[in-house]
Design goal:
Number of domains: 2
Structural class: alpha+beta
Distance between the termini: 70 Å
Keywords: DNA-binding, Glycerol metabolism, Transcription, Transcription regulation
Strand order of the largest sheet: 6-5-4-9-8-7
Number of helices: 9
Oligomer: single chain
Largest sheet: 6 strands, antiparallel
Helix content: 40-55%
CATH class of the largest domain: Alpha Beta
Function: May be an activator protein for the gylABX operon.
InterPro entries: GAF-like_dom_sf, HTH_MetabolicPath_Reg, Tscrpt_reg_IclR_C, Tscrpt_reg_IclR_N, WH-like_DNA-bd_sf, WH_DNA-bd_sf
Shape: globular
GO molecular function: DNA binding; DNA-binding transcription factor activity
GO biological process, one term: glycerol metabolic process
CATH topology of the largest domain: Beta-Lactamase
Length: about 260
């Protein structure tokens, strides 16, 4: 038998890292990408990248067009993502609450999970309106620019928040709070009132209200209601916030129900 040298192990780990870089780049959106563009973006030589893509194609993780010139995520990625969601306890536990919130307010209800300085969308219930908020399942958004992210960041002390975020913060829109002083003031307000909000900081024309759900300490999940700013005025926002706080409180006591939504 041949032993595995340190150099062999290093090459194996590097190859695994490159494979994940390719999948994450394709998952970032923007449609199918040509080999040359991926090579430049990832800093991987075309010959090495082509070999990786051939392996991923054979395993169903990547698909290509008829000409074999552009690459996108394959069905295997969907299968694994669906398996993750199917096994996720939070998505199952809070699904009923999302249903009832979406029905009560006729707006999009969402479940997010904190992951570093971002939040990832785990579940969504659609608004019946033609003009509505939409983010695809699995999308990653900056925590500081979202109501859900702020609700979760506020569960942590400022020094822990600083370790999660990378300053200066990126601006999603002209309204995004990016400075540490303003964000810390916003998080202090969230802690005081028990819920978070944002208006046109994550997406132009949209606003949201959110609350952290105490499944863990500190919380890693938040539920949010998102709507066009034209439909989310102060009174509606207050009613949404009250319903979200009530829902989170009932989850903490083992009663994931909402009242007053007949």
């Amino acid at each position: 038998m041949f032993g595995v040298t340190a150099a062999d192990a290093h090459r194996a780990v590097k190859s695994a890292g490159r494979t994940l870089d390719v999948l994450e780049a394709l998952a970032a959106g923007g449609g199918p990408r040509p080999l040359g563009e991926l090579s430049r973006a990832l800093g991987i030589p075309k010959s090495s990248l082509h070999a990786l893509l051939r392996t991923l194609l054979a395993r169903g993780w990547v698909e290509t067009d008829d000409a074999g010139a552009r690459f996108a995520l394959g069905v295997r990625a969907l299968e694994v993502g669906a398996a993750y969601l199917g096994l996720d306890g939070a998505a199952g536990l809070l699904g009923g609450i999302l249903d009832r919130l979406a029905t009560r307010f006729a707006e999009t209800a969402q479940l997010f999970r904190l992951d570093g300085g971002s939040v990832v969308l785990l579940a969504r219930r659609e608004s019946p309106h033609a003009l509505r908020a939409y983010h695809p399942i699995g999308c990653r958004l900056p925590a500081h620019a979202t109501a859900a992210g702020r609700a979760l960041l506020a569960q942590r002390p400022d020094d822990a928040v600083d370790r999660l975020l990378s300053w200066p913060l990126p601006a999603r829109t002209e309204s995004t709070v990016t400075g540490p002083a303003r964000l810390r003031a916003e998080l202090a307000a969230v802690r005081a009132r028990g819920w978070a909000a944002e208006a046109q900081e994550c997406d132009q024309g949209l606003a949201a209200v959110a609350v952290a759900v105490p499944l863990h300490r500190p919380a890693t999940e938040a539920i949010a209601l998102c709507a066009p700013v034209t439909r989310l005025g102060p009174q509606t926002r207050a009613r949404m916030a009250e319903a979200l706080v009530e829902a989170a409180g009932r989850v903490s006591t083992g009663q994931p129900l909402l009242t007053g939504d007949t």
